[in-house]
Amino acid sequence: MSEPDTQISYLAAALKAPRVREAAIRLAHQARDSGWTHEDYLIAVLDREVAARNASGAQLRIRAAGFPARKTLEEFVFDHQPGIRRDDLTPLAAGHYLTEARNIVLLGPPGTGKTHLAIALGIAACHTGQRVMFATATDWVARLQDAYQRGRLPAELTKLRRYPLIIIDEVGYLPFEQDAANLFFQLVSSRYEHASLILTSNLPFARWGEVFGDQTVAAAMIDRIVHHADVHTLKGGSYRLKHLTDDTLPSVRLTDQTN
Ligand code: ADP
Ligand code: MG
Fold this sequence. Notes:
Strands 2-3-4-1-5 form a five-stranded parallel sheet, with helices on both faces. The chain is an alpha/beta fold. It contains 13 helices and five strands. It has two domains: 62 residues, no CATH class; 177 residues, P-loop containing nucleotide triphosphate hydrolases (Rossmann fold, 3-Layer(aba) Sandwich). It is elongated, with a radius of gyration of 24 Å.
């Protein structure tokens, strides 16, 4: 290794920027051959480091978010989902709604792609540098109950507010006891106009009273959620069952025969 290369290696290690070392040495030849200015060269070297850091940061954030699967907007077949247009959804990937603390609500029957879209938007947010946390409504409540029992609920809510996006999947699959409903309400309130939520539910808002055991609590919660929100209602049959023929799914054939 030449003297300058050794020095670059030492300095890059001191900066904890290993890609600077690799890029500086590799791009030096190209810079000389192509007559780059000093500024062009410096920009090219630093750009490699920044791009690599952003990419590995995104992967760390995606791993930390707790997504149950990896899903992307590119994989979503909008032609199979009449309830939502590609043009309405894809701009959300840029994450402007997060800076405005707006919410996204995805409603619709099982299998229509609510969780898929929630994950895809969450992953997109990770790529824009935002921290995300994903869990089902039941898991969020369990987490808050645990914090409450340890006398740490306010601290937990404050900590969660540092996440620009939390995703609450499957509101409504299980009804909540009153204590759980109150904790959920506190979570929604603490984020109102501070940080975003993505919520999914198989129930329309009109039936959230059944989930929270109280129409007033449900109405107050919906009020805060939808005040600054995009609400999308997905439609149609389950995508899970779409590819299955009668032969692979006897229960469907049974249902068809009884109809
Ligand atoms: P929901 O949360 O509404 O019950 P999911 O998002 O879990 O539904 O979707 C069920 C399965 O079908 C998932 O594997 C998902 O990736 C897939 N899926 C649903 N809708 C679509 C779609 N329009 N395009 C591609 N895959 C889809
Ligand atoms: Mg789901």
